[in-house]
Amino acid sequence: MRATLRRLAVTTLSALALAAAPMGAAVAAAEPAQRPDTVSAVAAAMNPTSPGLRANTDEREFVSLTVDKVTPTAVTTSSEPFVTVTGSVRNVGDRAVHDVKVRLQSGPAISESEQLRSMLTADQEAYDTVGEFTTVTEKLQVGQSSRFTLAMPLRSASSVSLGITAPGVYPLLVNVNGTPEYGGQARLDDARFLLPVLGLPRDPSIRGADRPEGAAVPPRITDPLAVTLMWPFADKPRLASGIPGSSDEKVRLVDDELADSVADGGRLEQLLAAVEFATGDSLDRDHKLRDSMCLAVDPDLLITVSNMTRGYLVVDDPSDPTGPAHEGTGQTAATEWLERMRSLTSRMCTTAVPFAQVDLAALQRVDDPTLVERALSAPAGIVDGVLGITSRRGLTWPDAGVLNPEAAGLRGLGPTALLAENAVAEETTRSTVPLAGTTVDRPLSAALFDVPAATALAAVGATPQTPTYTPSDVRYDLSEDSRTARLQDALGAIAWPALTPPQNATANQDHGLLVVPPQNWSVDGDEARAVLSTVSTLMRSGLANPRPLADLLDRPTAQPPVDLDYPAQATKDGAPERVQTGAAAVAPEINALTETLVNDPQSALTPRAYTAPLSEDLLRALSTSGRRDRDRGAATAAAETRVSDVEEAMTDIYASVTVLPPGGAYTLASEQSPLLLVARNDLPVGINVRLQISAPPEMTITDIGDQQLPPRGSRTLQVPATVENAGKLVVDVALTTTNGRELGEPTSVSIRTNTYGKALAIITACAGALLLLLAGRRLWHRFRGQPDPADEGYEAR
């Protein structure tokens, strides 16, 4: 974006220059002056030979400039007195480019924090100290690239230099000129980066140790910066979705990239190795760096890696999580990485972040208590259980770095939230501020981190990100910059607060820096070590002191509460609305299923353990991971797939418990014979069910209440029934959970009965009455000594 804007501006000036030039006039780039060059845009437009103009009149790009290495990455009093930049120029156009040259330029020291970002998009004229052009190649063919090395003194009394005379953070620019075929010489591309100068080495051009103007210039250390550094361990969701828990089955992953990440040289292994090395006793003897750091761990990552240590499967098709799969390759690497994590976290501050980088605003809108508990309250217990430690409680770090007022009321949040400085509506000089709108029984404060440093750190690595909290006026396409340049920008942003004490400081002002990279940080080992080395150097030089996270969170805040400021960008970077709608619909079904399952103390699989992966899948669907990449479509598609897979899984679970249809008609021997039904449960955990029977009016069914079905088994249920008439009846039978969710497919039972119902009862009653009457009459006559008339004709023999 920013390079495109620069090219567009240069193109426009080129067009004006060509229009003003006489017919056939050549457009040539002037050779650099031996002093600061401050050519204005107006002058360039009026002078077709001014440096910085393109030879073409369209937006065609001819070459691409890449900075590969900057030495030193941070200047100290013991550094070499010059800066060396190594890079390459590649022909990305459709024609050869002749006379390719590069030079180094610098601008004044950064004086405002906003310039840490804005100077990287400023016009070339802002870099007013220029060096000499160095020829890279006489001709660069299409697709060809050529390397270069530039070296320039930091300062010099006798030659061209960068003009750096004091510690500070300086913007540098590498400019490339060339002459495309069919065009004139012009500036074709540039690369910008920041150079932190923590101390200035001696000027070699001034001889004599007694000459103060050439002496080394150390930094001012009267007001050291209080530094707190968060170090994240997180990854995007990897577990296959829609698969409930099990006590004996291997977990499934959608890919095997995590195996590479935790193996030697992988991203997560290098993040771990960088901390192990930098905080070791040999380098961090006084433990200043260790005391300033806190490891922030995603419980979803730990759950995945822990499962990998027991062996796992990788699905062949991520869209078919229950389909064919093959054995994963990372069991050993996962075991070793997890053991190293346990060792490291046992001696360092460690805290849990919300589950799977869940979007807290979306979590609040879904409004499901179980999801809130699993996202905010459960992570600390997961981290403690897997790592065998007691993690730091009381801190919630939203992955977005911002918080909307509605989400601030979520149970389990805080009591301190880690937010960007511009996530609150008022500027403040305090590191921790109370937030308005929270309740007295659940107050919430915000620990504020530095936006320029966090924005620059997010851009470091293989997958650069622009955080949600980055102001709109300094957002640009990070792919235009090389990884080296982005790393230099981050080192400069970290060092700047230490080199630039606040003006007009008051007693209520905190001179501190909370360094917060993105949770899913794509740095490699060299980049991670460079960041830690810069922080460590600040402390060794006296520019900074460690401020443990506990000191920051426990600090009382007496100032008035401030309002939250939720940017519009947060909605774009958050979970899609249709994903939120789907999660809100299926979450209550998971809760209802959990309530009706049987908690058997003899079973290793509890109801919570069985349904937890499904709830966690919904949190993974609400994740902001990948939502700030250039192509967020992949993250959206993955989230929608997760919700759909959970819905299908719930359908399959409900279908796994059912009433078995009888093989034929069922015959009742009497009007009160019980109805025998068989219910089957194919789930690995027991479940409580209820029979729902719809019978005709001539049949009365007795409710047998809640019934328990064993795991992976069946049970015969006796249902008392009374039938009033003989004949054939049809009874509809369905099975539900105890809270009314339908299970399986309803079935119909055909019943034959031999009873005559009411008629038989009347005939039986009448026969009984007649029998009693006749027996009574006989007894009556016998008691009176009279022969019974019924005995006439029978004489005793």
Overall average residue pLDDT = 86
Pick out the low-confidence regions: 1-58
Derived from helix and strand composition plus strand pairing, the structural class reads alpha/beta
How many distinct beta strands? 30
Shape: elongated
Helical stretch tally: 19
As a percent range, the share of strand residues is 15-25%
**Portion in helices:** 25-40%
Oligomer: single chain
How would a textbook summarize the main sheet? Answer: 5 strands, antiparallel
Distance between the termini: 132 Å
Radius of gyration: 39 Å
Characterization of this structure:
The protein has 797 residues and is of the alpha/beta class. Helix content is 30%, strand content 23%. It is built from 19 helices and 30 strands. The strands form 8 sheets. Strands 3, 4, 5, 7 and 8 form a 5-stranded antiparallel sheet that branches. Strands 9, 11, 14, 19 and 20 form a 5-stranded parallel sheet that branches. A 5-stranded mixed sheet has the order 22-30-29-24-26. α5 packs parallel to α8 and α16 packs antiparallel against α17. It starts with a helix and ends in a 14-residue tail after the last helix. Residues 1-58 have low confidence and may be disordered.
Chain-wise SSE layout:
Blueprint: H1 2-20, H2 41-46, E1 63-71, E2 82-91, E3 97-106, H3 115-118, E4 129-130, E5 134-140, E6 145-153, E7 168-180, E8 186-197, E9 225-233, E10 251-253, H4 257-262, H5 267-278, H6 288-292, E11 293-297, H7 299-308, E12 312-315, E13 325-327, H8 331-345, E14 349-352, H9 360-366, H10 369-387, E15 395-396, E16 416-420, E17 432-434, E18 445-449, H11 451-458, H12 483-499, E19 512-515, H13 525-540, E20 544-546, H14 549-553, H15 568-573, H16 577-596, H17 607-621, H18 633-655, E21 657-660, E22 666-668, E23 675-681, E24 687-694, E25 699-701, E26 707-709, E27 713-719, E28 721-723, E29 727-737, E30 742-753, H19 758-783
Parallel strand pairs: 9-11, 9-19, 9-20, 10-12, 11-14, 15-16, 16-18, 22-30
Antiparallel strand pairs: 1-2, 2-6, 3-4, 3-5, 3-7, 7-8, 12-13, 17-18, 21-23, 23-27, 24-26, 24-29, 25-28, 29-30
